[in-house]
Amino acid sequence: MNRRLSALVRRDPAEVQGAYFLLKGLLPWLQPKRVTRLTGPIREGWLMKTVGGLAGTVGATLLSAHRHGRVTPELRKLGIWSALTLLVVDVSTYATHRRRRSAVFLADAAVQAALLAAQWYACSRMPVVIDARAGGLRDPSRYGAGEHGRWNILPGESRDAAGNRDIVAEGSMSSFPASDPPSYMG
Questions:
Q1: C-beta pairs of 118-127 under 8 Å, 24+ apart in sequence
Q2: Does the residue 135 lie in any domain?
Q3: Does 104 map to a domain?
Q4: Per-residue pLDDT tens for 141-172?
Q5: Domain-located, residue 42
Q6: Domain end (from 124, 152, 170)
Q7: Domain containing 144: what range?
Q8: Which residues of the chain have pLDDT under 70?
Q9: Whole-model pTM?
Q10: Which helix (H) or strand (E) holds 181?
């Protein structure tokens, strides 16, 4: 494997997919004639630009998330589903349109398959972080948050992540500073 390909493989898939999708999305807008020369005649120019705009938007989002270090599992899944969608479109276009059987569709399908596999692998290696308050626990009374976001607990009790009462030792209230008493003290 040469150096450039080796360096590309070691990069974050969100960065690689973001750059590829951004380039793929800008090309129909900047050079539509080149796109039609590569893929064959396209009857709906607006559709080509719409798909390009959507691909560019996904690419810009992935690049921005990578740049700021905020590639979440949801963004990885966006990359996975986007690559899968374009893979299916490329393969079906190549298989059904005999007039437009361009090798570009198969090459793009291979790139989409590689991006899909890389994002899938990266998503499977991300640590799982569970926010106990998310999901069905949005109602503050269910997980014990009182007024102003404080925990509504009485001496000798607390609430676990599911909002159930959890009996604790009597000395646990010593963690409250005197200047910020719990809401039950009035």
A1: 118/13, 118/16, 118/17, 119/13, 119/14, 119/17, 119/76, 119/79, 119/80, 119/83, 120/80, 121/13, 122/12, 122/13, 122/14, 122/76, 123/73, 123/76, 123/77, 123/80, 126/73, 126/76
A2: no
A3: yes
A4: 444 444 444 445 555 556 666 666 655 544 55
A5: yes
A6: 124
A7: 140-180
A8: 1, 4-9, 99-101, 128-186
A9: 0.64
A10: none
